[in-house]
Amino acid sequence: MFSIAFAAMPATDAEVMWRGGADAYGYQPETIISDGPGHPCRHCLRNIDAGEELFVFAYRPFPELQPYAETGPIFLHKTPCQRYDAEEILPPVLASSRDFIVRGYGENDRIVYGTGAVTPTGDIAAYAASLLERPDIAYIHVRSARNNCYQCRIDKVEVPAHADAGAST
After folding, report:
1. What is the DSSP annotation of 40-84?
2. How far is 127 from 140, CA to CA, in rounded Å?
């Protein structure tokens, strides 16, 4: 038995940007001011409020370069924020749109063809769980249905079997 877990970008990736590091293309992040909704932080998985500074930079949520290692623009609070940790609930940033692309990837970090679907926000958890039941799916990406920007990852979390609660002592 398993459950699913929504995962923000790793804190180590965000810290690289906050410490002045370079993005996936070797460039410094750009600083802009949020004009309100539409700037989802990929670390805390919340929208960045109007008037707040944020970084926009190229991000590659894959361990190495390969043909399927998509790189694209994402946003991050310029001031360090706490990483999203309520893994079992739909992250607040996903409430910002009616639907998202949900796509499965194999252990080799390649897209598993036929898994990508524009999915209503309320159906993301169920669709991801159904994909993660498949042995060829290692994890899921949630991406913008309009711009294909990376939002977050969904992983399978094994739920340990519990001892029978009615066992006698």
Report:
1. BBTTT-SBPPTT-EEEEEEE--SSS--TT---EEEEEESS--PPP
2. 10
Task: Give 142-167 as a DSSP string.
Answer: EEETTT--EEEEEEEEEPPPPPPTT-
Domain spans in the chain, listed from the N-terminal domain onward: 2-158
* b/e sequence 22-46, b meaning 16+ C-beta within 10 Å: ebbeeeebeeeebeeeebbbbbbbb
pLDDT tens by residue, the chain, 169 residues: 889 999 999 999 999 999 999 999 999 999 999 998 889 999 999 999 999 999 999 999 999 999 999 999 999 999 999 999 988 899 999 998 999 999 999 999 999 999 999 999 999 999 999 999 999 999 999 999 999 999 999 999 988 876 444 444 3
- Give pTM, 2 decimals: 0.90
| Structure token digits, residue 90 | 């739909």
Q: What is the identity of the amino acid at 7?
A: A
